[in-house]
Design brief:
One of its GO terms (molecular function) is DNA binding. Belongs to the LysR transcriptional regulatory family. With 287 residues, the chain is α/β, with parallel strands linked by helices. It contains eleven helices and eleven strands. It folds into three domains: 77 residues, Winged helix-like DNA-binding domain superfamily/Winged helix DNA-binding domain (Arc Repressor Mutant, subunit A); 99 residues, D-Maltodextrin-Binding Protein, domain 2 (3-Layer(aba) Sandwich); 97 residues, 3-Layer(aba) Sandwich (D-Maltodextrin-Binding Protein, domain 2), CATH 3.40.190.10. It is 46% helix and 22% strand. The strands form three sheets. Strands 3, 4, 5, 6, 9, 10 and 11 form a seven-stranded mixed sheet that branches. A two-stranded antiparallel ribbon has the order 1-2. Helix 1 crosses helix 3. The longest helix has 25 residues.
Amino acid sequence: MDVTLAQTFLAIVDCGNFRDAAKRLHVTQSTVSARIKSLEEQLGKPLFVRNKSGATMTVAGRNFRDCALSFVQLWDKARYKVASTRSYQDYFRIGVRPSLWHPLTMNWLQRVQRQFPAVAFHLHFGIASDLVRKMQEGVLDIAVLLTAPSLPGIEAEKLYREDFLLVSGCDDPVPSPERADEFAARYIDIEWGEEFRSNRDHYYPYLSVAGLTFSMGSYGLQYLLRNGGYGYFPRTMVQADLDRKALKVVNEAPVISQQIYLAHARNVDNVFLPDLLNHFRALAKEV
């Protein structure tokens, strides 16, 4: 399949109609229509229903969307990797949960950029399912995760353990059994992974269904800082806010220790990869 067809499909999904997609791609609307017709013929299914309000994906279109996005991203990776040879010897895409950016990944990036000036890096931040899918599809070379992916060709090793603390806004009262409903109503749930959820539910089974959930901890933390409430966050993520008294640790709340994993392709013959992984391992000992 021509990558241009997938790019055209995604432009229509994003714009909502063929006309605006054509403007974005700097081609005629008839060209966009011809590309989608070719794509539908190759797939054997219609991808859009066109009406006055625009273009709506069919079931086949919705099923194809993630595949099209991965295909375009993999093509971009290949294009950048090849193009980087003009200025760089190699190119790596690194996937990171935003909560694991500071200090581990940021320090890692600073160190490897100094040591390997001939290597280009692309940092991709996302939720667990997004990062794991991109690892499986070969879009990412290395990922720092809260859950070990079980995928063929992917090796996941234990990197270090992170302590998750129950924190609250400074004006929020200390939770107590008598105020469990109030605590649950103001609890901000973050998708830290199944291992964390299982441990958290052991201590707080009534939090298994939360009224407010964020897929990314950084946004949940911003919300808590502005509106108050309660939530579990990595110590490294909230330490600065604790130091400046913007948050407080909930006294006597259990600390949940969560394993952090380093994932990468297995048996890859690359001259830079072993050193890049070793820098992660060395820095993990300092966290």
